[in-house]
Design a protein that fits this description.
The protein is of the alpha/beta class. The protein has helices spanning 7-11, 44-60, 85-97, 110-122, 166-179, 193-208, 266-275, 283-298, 307-315, and strands at residues 31-37, 64-65, 68-76, 101-105, 127-129, 159-161, 182-187, 212-213, 230-235, 240-244, 249-254, 319-323, 326-329, 342-348, 351-354. It is built from 9 helices and 15 strands. Helix 2 (44-60) runs parallel beside helix 8 and helix 5 (166-179) runs parallel beside helix 6.
Length: 362
């Protein structure tokens, strides 16, 4: 890792023509944004969608953020796997060691993000994820010791995301179960820290909605008599919500809004025209990760000594209007205020129909 005091010296390579009126070194060469996502392997389709979303954003900006030229470098963090720890480390280190780097976009999922964030944070390089929703990345979380401080060796946050956090998804599942008239609820867990945390959050949310929370493991799919009323079972691992009893249903929730349901209805058309395929769930979130970074670069000025800090500060507290995701802001801890959670009705196999995508009440 590169110590932060060395950053100013590294960034001097960006200078092409001397200093400003006060003798301050100015950025006059292109800056870089690194994009680290799974481009092959089992998460390849989702990763390529996010990468192409980011590519569309920088192309529509004509490769510029205000007066500054921006170049994107797309890296694979999977190497045929869901994610490869060696590739993730190499990608993050390549970015922080590049004196022209202004930001890092990645990773797609939470586990590899936990590996790269300490590297980028130590170098003061802002990192924006289009898909990592883990609560512990931005806040203390049961089952994840010393979080989020363990991802912040610099002592300050540098990670943000354009996708709602996992606890928002859990709240949305409980809210939907309540809307459907469930009087009791249960949740599964495989014993992992993620599923245990999600199970705890779902139970609390279900209780807040007036549902009786069943203790222990829920039963498998069974017929429920009318007297028992409707019962809900949530599975954090698959984000599936089953309703048993009168009017049974097999449903699913997702932090990523279906492309056909995005607030900006032109995004699907623009993406399809550029890449000759329909966008997947992560495309808009990759687009916004890049657009958010470009906005921060545009407002960062050209002073070399403070440039990375200014870009990072420009992400936290940023407001974005008229985006594919609608209007949202980034909080001081790096979470998005965008709270739409996509609802699906499962049709059997992998088929599903997108329904609404409301924010959980609260």
């Amino acid at each position: 890792m590169i110590a932060r005091p060395a950053l100013a010296a590294l960034l001097l390579s960006l200078i092409v023509a001397g200093c400003g009126i006060a003798g301050t070194a100015k950025i006059e060469a292109p800056v870089s944004v690194y994009v680290s996502l799974p481009l092959n392997g089992p998460r390849g389709p989702a990763g390529r969608d996010a990468a192409d979303g980011a590519r569309l954003a920088i192309e529509e900006a004509q490769g510029r953020a205000g007066s500054i030229e921006v170049r994107a470098h797309f890296l694979d963090d999977a190497r045929g796997k869901p994610w490869d720890p060696v590739a993730v480390g190499e990608n993050a280190r390549r970015a922080v060691q590049d004196s022209s780097a202004a930001a890092y976009i990645g990773e797609l999922d939470s586990e590899p993000t936990r590996a790269s964030v300490p590297i980028t944070n130590d170098a003061g390089l802002v990192q924006v994820s289009p898909g990592a929703g883990a609560v512990d990345l931005t806040a203390p979380a049961a089952g994840y010791p010393n979080t989020p401080d363990r991802y912040r060796p610099s002592g300050s946050p540098s990670f943000a995301r354009t996708v709602p956090a996992d606890d928002v998804v859990v709240d949305a599942a409980a809210s939907w179960a309540s809307e459907l008239g469930a009087s009791s609820a249960a949740v599964t867990s495989d014993g992992s820290a993620f599923q245990n945390l999600s199970a705890s959050e779902f139970k609390a949310a279900a209780a807040e909605h007036g549902m009786q929370v069943r203790p222990g493991k829920p039963p498998p799919a069974v017929a429920v008599t009318g007297k028992a009323g409707k019962q809900a079972v949530y599975e954090p691992g698959t984000e599936r919500l089953a309703i048993y009893g009168p009017g049974p249903a097999k449903l699913q929730v997702s932090a990523e809004v279906d492309a056909s349901r995005l607030p900006d209805r032109t995004f699907e058309r623009r993406f399809s025209m550029r890449f000759r395929r329909a966008p997947g769930q992560y495309a808009a979130y990759g687009y916004e990760a890049m657009a958010l970074v470009l906005q921060a670069i545009r407002g960062a000025g050209t002073d070399v000594s403070s440039f990375r800090d200014n870009v990072r500060n420009g992400v936290f507290g940023a407001h974005r209007d008229g985006t594919p995701l609608g209007s949202y802001a980034i909080t001081s801890e790096g979470d998005t205020t965008e709270c739409m959670i996509q609802r699906y009705r499962l049709l059997g196999g992998t088929a599903r129909t997108p329904l609404g995508s409301p924010c959980p009440p609260g």
